[in-house]
Amino acid sequence: MKKLLIYLAVTVGLSAILAVVSRFSTSFSEWYSMNIYRFFVGTVGRFFGFFSFSAGEFYLIFVLLVLLGGLVFAIVKTARSKGKRRRVLAISAVAASCIGATLFLQYMLLCGINYNRQAFLYIEHSTGEISFERTPEDELRVFLHMLAEFEEAFPDLENQITTDANGFFVKTSDVSETAPAAMANLAKAFPRLDVRFSQPKPVRLFAELMSDAFIIGIYWPYTLEANYNSIAPDSERGITALHELVHTAGFMRENEANFIAFLAARESGDAELMYSGYLFAFEMMIRNIADEFTAAAMREMLPGQMHRDRENQRNFWLGRLHSVDVVFDSEGEVIDTIVSENPVAGAIQDASSSMNDLFLRVQGQEGTVSYSRMIDLLYATELARIDSE
After folding, report:
1. Whether residue 145 is found in the same domain as residue 264
2. Which residues sit opposite 368 in a β-bridge?
């Protein structure tokens, strides 16, 4: 019992010190990310990188089994320990706290501190991100420039990407190879990204649950793995793999992860990653335009292929919230289609969104809205590019 209490005190104390110091010292967080965290990427990340499957899935199962086994053991031990039940319960509570404290310390060392590092794009002698005020004209100007850039990169779009029988984008290359290469390529221009990138892993065991929760990708800090949903539309997997790899490079803010992922996709030279990146960027721009008329005009200007893939993405995610039952007659002809809400998936999605929003706010971000803040970085850098040309 005494040893458990000492371990708990040391673990909690160290975690608290790291949390407080990193929150109030950007320079410490940046130094840690560039030195200590990189060591973990090159050791822990490299070890789990040898596995072709998501080790994070099995890590989660292992932890859950340990907790469940511990609970069963505590209940049985308590029932059999007449006269000593309070002590058994106390030891069980301390042991469970030790497990939780260990997991939190691991989280701080492999993820938490990075939330407080210096912004990816920052003003010299300041820790803040680049910010500026833009007008609707600026937004349209950037969109048209990027659309022209996309059309120049894809003069023969239909033959540069592969589609299925329904006309939807189909990924033919392996993102476990193309995504790390794209990140390594971008790191040549941004040395702070220069880490040993392991292959992003498809989540298979929990793919259905991830889909019901509207989660397309996740960074698992305990194994330093970038994971993506294996059943999500192909057009989203490339940009998602890049987004999660950005987290493995130590940039945890969601707006920066989205922005860096787009840069990596655009500069990759890989047609499938580029297409996924541009599709994502255009979607984010249109979704965050205040003027509905401008947003509608932007949508109309997108290539037909993007319209199909946007619809495919929408149908996939909204389809998780609904169940469709087809009614046939005695001759096998369809006589009715009944669409009903899936209450279980709806509850999972609501809980997932609320938990993610709370988690991001605790980390000093703006909640789930921080994902869309990538367009602030996008507009700032793109306007600078346009003006310099």
Report:
1. yes
2. none
Are 97 and 158 in a shared domain? no
Lookup result for tokens 């031990």: 77
DSSP 93-162: HHHHHHHHHHHHHHHHHHTGGGGGS--SSB-TT--SBP-----HHHHHHHHHHHHHHHHHH-TTHHHHSE
Nearest to 111 by CA among 258, 313, 257, 267: 257
> Torsion angle of alpha carbons 184, 189, 190, 194, nearest 10°?
30
pLDDT tens digits, one per residue of 128-187 = 455 567 788 888 999 999 999 999 999 999 999 999 998 999 999 999 999 999 999 999
Among 225, 171, 174, 238, smallest CA distance to 197 is for 225
DSSP 8-class letter at 113? G
User: Domain count of the chain?
Assistant: 2
Statement to judge: residues 285 and 147 lie in one domain? yes
Same domain, yes or no: 376 and 278: yes
Give domain status of residue 266, yes or no. Answer: yes
378 inside domain: yes
Q: Could you tell me if residue 172 is inside a domain?
A: yes
CA torsion sign for 185, 188, 189, 192 is positive
Rounded to an integer, what distance in angstroms lies between the CA atom of residue 93 and that of residue 34?
Answer: 37
* DSSP letter, residue 213: T
- What does the DSSP assignment read for 66-102? HHHHHHHHHHHHHHH-TT-HHHHHHHHHHHHHHHHHH
Distances (CA, A) of 332 to 294, 324, 339: 46, 17, 19
How far apart CA 256 and CA 377 sit, in angstroms, is 8
Separation of alpha carbons 91 and 80, rounded Å: 15
Give yes or no: residues 141 and 108 share one domain. Answer: no
Whether the CB-CB separation of 116 and 18 falls below 8 Å is answered with no
Q: In whole angstroms, give the CA distance from residue 220 to residue 56.
A: 6
pLDDT digits (tens, 9 = 90+) for 4-44: 888 999 999 999 999 999 999 999 999 999 999 999 999 99
Q: Is there a domain that residue 126 lies in? A: no
Residues 161 and 102 in one domain: no
> 281: which 2 tokens?
């960027």
Domain residues for the domain of 367 are: 136-388
Phi and psi at 52, nearest 5°, equal -80, -20
Last residue of a domain, one of 54, 87, 116: 116
